[in-house]
């Protein structure tokens, strides 16, 4: 029997899909070598039409007409070629050409306009009585590779059709161009053109704005670049050489500026100036596009400790790690060392994940990293720089916030960089950050920089064009200069492209054989390693990297040209995110999807430890591959991982993607679909609450899926367990019995885990239904088969430990029967078990739930102490539900203690909060307490109406645990309002309910009230 390479589950021989995660099994077909290799390029197209060709053909002899066409074609072809374009088709009286194919995509626009004007002038001059009209449009064209490595455009497609339709809008001897082309040209030249307006073209879905070329020369634009400030003042402020304005922190700064403006270069200069006096903590979000929690901070720590990269090898020596960490940060506590080891991925420290719930572990990780850096800042001067902060993940953002809250010592400095519009203004204001806005360089600065980069050989006109196109952006300037150097003398005197994307595409295209390597790297992402690139190089799909080349040599050549740059730990990254995006956009969709699939498979096969630690790496590539067989398993793993890390939004994102993929896989993936639905429901409950429409829909789908499948198995039982919890927490105790019956019907008697989950729900259903003896019997059965080694980690997937669940339920039974000592014993045993298995998120549950048991037993002071302690623990853990539950029980206990502030609006508001998140369990009883409190304050008829409505809800929902007490309180209100008949009737019903369940404490109170009222 084989195993699934994604999740490790056993797979039946011959199965096409994994039943656990839905991964497609078996060999996937590779693309045919060399077949359909294509790239996308931004080009400018022109379509030339000979005006009146039909009349001309009718009037001239055939050989004369043929000579006219031949001359016309020659004029067009020569003019196109002389302006740097390529003729694609000569179709009778029509000529199709493109600009920017072998030169540069955005050089195309101005060259095409000049060629069009030259043709409409040259044709009537050479052929008297004959005119032409031209349409121009810039768009994306699919180009196929020829045998010589050159690219040949595909002459079909929407943008080709648009160009033809635009030509029809021109008058004889006229030229009409699209807004897209005019936008490209306008950045490098002023084109005399009149606005025709919005025009609907045949076959084009939306109107297009067109312009007609007018007489007049093409001129350089006026004021293309403004005079801007330089960097000396910024560096002086950030290094402390000059003071910052009053009221702002002198050593905590946020530097704002657009992409490529030089924020990273300023950080580098600051680091060089302070490097001899400050410890450098250099963080960056640029390689964390998947928002893996704390990735930038953990990556820095790995480097600081001398490791190659994060996450570490899980088998790395724990003692050596501890020694390195304590050398870096003396005085760090044992728990902090353990948390750090777990964060770094050491297998020996992963037991910590069993002791803490996800929200608490997240808080501990953030706090530990903040402690670590704070220790360093207290011990020595530190420069903490965080580049590309606009991409920061939530946990790293929380880390920085916590660090700033503690205060940055005077001799330390913190510098964050971000792009404009990143919505970090409130953060900067809150922490008193000095905000510096980094502006573009002035023309003089750009010229000085151009000379410093070595622009020898460029003529003045070309240098001026590069200066204008750079727009004061240092990165763009470097890229344009590198492009000029590679193109050489063949393009001397020609305009540079007007958009950076097209420039980058031309830059990538100019690398010949290395172009394909760049494209593959772009699919991996902004950052990559040589090893990762080697996994998908030369796969025989037409994007082969010549394996006779040395990969290290080729990467060095690309680095020398400014395409990529080395990163800490021996990796590489594209020198700018736009460069990676431009290269990525050159790959047609089908090939791009195939490459993403290759990357996902290569990561899974070659780096399983990293994938296990950060499964979203594979999941993102899987989603981009659009292959459901890859998406399903990887996204289930990523969704489960984020769920355990309390990243509920990302968990929902991946699980939604998994379910969409599983829907395409059909019946073969039913088991995995149940798993994904169960996880999605859990994520939505914790993110949105029980009552949110998306949560309700998740459980509706889960219930439908479980009902349709009805075949049992671990996935089915797990789904039913979640459905039971949802129905029970919503307060529908009566209908929850249906799910219990279904679980008992389909559970495998030979599978202890399935039986344990069944018995937990049998026990809960019996308790809330008032069948207390049945509840104790279910507990006895569960205790016979519960094994801590096998079942002690179930709480990680189902949210509660089965043994704790039944023991706390038993405590309530014994409380209802007045056995206080047994309640205390079960509380001690439950807390000890929670600590033993690491399910500490259940500590508030034990305290609050067993506090209600003590209240049932009449021990109100002890009950209040337990509930208050449980609420405080819940607040510390961020366990919002149990915090709310604890505050409700404090109000309930206050009612019984006749506190003057008990009940009333506070309790009503708390119960309303429960309703808002879909919690209905115990709500009728709480409403009866609220009604009784109102009656004490003179509520009268209003209180009675609330009582009646609450007891009706008890009957409808089947909630019987506290029903005797609710009816007793209603009887009390009736008696006080002078209605002894209804009071006795309510007391009789209360007594029947108490005797039915065996709740002797309730029975005593009811009998005492009967005696008191006669």
UniProtKB/TrEMBL annotation:
It comes from the Bacteria. Pfam families: AAA_16 (PF13191), Guanylate_cyc (PF00211), Zn_Ribbon_1 (PF13240). InterPro entries: A/G_cyclase (IPR001054), AAA_16 (IPR041664), Nucleotide_cyclase (IPR029787), P-loop_NTPase (IPR027417), TPR-like_helical_dom_sf (IPR011990), Zinc_ribbon_dom (IPR026870). One of its GO terms (cellular component) is cytoplasm. GO terms for molecular function: adenylate cyclase activity; ATP binding. GO terms for biological process: cyclic nucleotide biosynthetic process; intracellular signal transduction. The keyword ATP-binding applies. Keywords: ATP-binding, Nucleotide-binding. Residues 44-167 form the Guanylate cyclase domain. This is AAA family ATPase. It comes from Pukyongiella litopenaei. The lineage of its organism: Bacteria, Pseudomonadati, Pseudomonadota, Alphaproteobacteria, Rhodobacterales.
